[in-house]
Specification:
The complex is a heterodimer of chains A (112) and B (114). Chain A is an all-beta fold and 112 residues long. Chain A has no helices and eleven strands. In chain A, strands 2, 4, 5, 9, 10 and 11 form a six-stranded mixed β-sheet that branches. A five-stranded antiparallel β-sheet of chain A has the order 1-3-8-7-6, with no helix packed on it. The model of chain A has no long low-confidence stretch (mean pLDDT 96). Classes of the chains: A mainly beta (112), B mainly beta (114).
């Protein structure tokens, strides 16, 4: 089955710097890759997603890149702000089942 | 979007007992899933709740331990049976309007087994 690896597990940046989180997946049939943000004690919420027919997608300060050949995708956050501090999860959706396989998570701390 | 009501939000249970968690959605959805999130960990898929048929379980999860019902397109339950302290976790339901679209999560049920 699908396996998703996420790095780093923790990331600390200064406010205004960029943050990059990387994920790799194993199942070449996976075709949907969402990123979720989870604040402490709250439910995960989608921040951006990308499908396999696209190499890059951007939404304001957030961008995601996908390399299907290498089976990896990355989240880029520019001009980080303290409110970006949270746990970020990447996920992959194998086939068309709708289910999501999550990476281990990255705790991002943005220092003012 | 979908609004999900998950109950209870938290509970403390005695080992050996069972707890049923409910997930109610404000609109009909194609897909419903149950995840477990152990403290400080990632989300692990337990099963896909299939409307009108048996749930599809992931490796490591079995129906006897986690029976799931989905009588219609807006409601599902997950039961955690014969609980042990290792079952202490957050359980989340998730819904999608179609495969490979945004997944919406319930607020979670924080279960502590003593």
């Amino acid at each position: 089955g699908e396996n998703v690896e996420q790095h780093p597990s923790t990331l600390s940046v200064q406010e205004g710097d960029s943050a990059v989180i990387k994920c790799t997946y194993s199942d070449s049939a996976s075709n949907y890759f969402p990123w979720y943000k989870q604040e402490l004690g709250k439910r995960p919420q989608l921040i951006i997603d990308i499908r396999s027919n696209v190499g890059e997608k951007k939404d304001q300060r957030i961008a995601v890149t996908l390399n299907k050949t290498a089976k990896h995708f990355s989240l880029h956050i520019t001009e980080t702000q303290p409110e970006d501090s949270a746990v970020y999860f990447c996920a992959a959706a194998p086939g068309n089942t709708g289910k999501l396989i999550f990476g281990q998570g990255t705790t991002l701390q943005v220092k003012p | 979007s979908a609004v999900i009501s998950q109950k209870p939000s938290r509970d403390i249970c005695q080992r050996g007992t069972s707890l049923t968690i409910q997930c109610q959605v404000d609109s009909q959805v194609t897909m419903m899933f149950w995840y477990r999130q152990q403290p400080g960990q990632s989300l692990t898929l337990i099963a896909t709740a299939n409307q009108g048929s048996e749930a599809t379980y992931e490796s490591g999860f079995v129906i006897d331990k986690f029976p799931i019902s989905r009588p219609n397109l807006t409601f599902s339950t997950l039961t955690v049976s014969n609980m042990s302290p290792e079952d202490s976790s957050i359980y989340l339901c998730s819904v999608e309007q179609a495969e490979n679209t945004e997944a919406f999560f319930g607020q979670g049920t924080r279960l502590t087994v003593v």
